[in-house]
Amino acid sequence: MMSDIKEVLIRDEEIQAKVKELAGQINRDYRDKDLVLVGVLNGAFVFLSDLMRNLDIPCTVDFVSWSSYGKDTSSSGVFRIMKDLETNVESKHVLVVEDIIDTGLTLHYLLDTIRARKPASVRVAALLDKPSRRRIEAKADYLGFQIPDAFVVGYGLDFAQRYRNLPFIGILKPDIYAGRGTPPDEVG
Ligand code: IMP
Ligand code: MG
User: Of 64, 75, 147, 150, which sits 20 to 30 A from 43 (CA to CA)?
Assistant: First the structure.
């Protein structure tokens, strides 16, 4: 698996330190609030599990799975919910937890959907952000790292469902996805 990685972009220890820092901010901001963490499957489950273990406030956790029909044609925003929330988020404080904000389309439409359910507030925690790729407004209130426009894997992020188990964030060697177009990950 390591031989498929061109470069380690963010080391395990750097991620863990950043997760603790973000959790510290969330602990302060949500003290005495009814917090629901909403993980976006599949990519966010590793970040979410580390983040929530660093929270010392009461919270619940739920997941959504959200799919777009083809990244390059999805400016119209054709999204489909594969798995919806089980929690009624009305009047609750929602924190959406994402692995990475790329074009911003996933997050933008997911936030629209959640806001329509009248939560008390909605914010976003994202581990990674590739701002140069943005096609629609989307931003994280709690951000781990800004990264350059490279396809990354590890710490929950995949290519063709693999590499999620790497403990660091690494840049995948381009010849791994050569011939398969831009490395897409339409589901999670
Ligand atoms: P967006 O809708 O373009 O912002 O895409 C967000 C989703 O695309 C993320 O939740 C990831 O699943 C996936 N994605 C975007 N960039 C990468 C990457 O570099 N590696 C792995 N998955 C990615
Ligand atoms: Mg994803």
Answer: 75
Nearest one of 99, 120, 111 to 51, comparing CA atoms: 99
Q: How far is CA 55 from the centre of its chain?
A: 18
φ, ψ of residue 80 to 5 degrees: the values are -135, 135
- Which ligand has an atom closest to residue 147 CA? 1
pLDDT digits (tens, 9 = 90+) for 30-75: 999 989 999 999 999 999 999 999 999 999 999 999 876 655 444 5
pTM of the entire predicted model: 0.92
Cα–Cα distance between 68 and 91 in angstroms, integer?
A: 28
Q: How remote is the CA of residue 32 from the centroid of ligand 1, in Å?
A: 33
Q: Looking at the annotation, which residues are catalytic?
A: 102
- Size (the chain), residues: 188
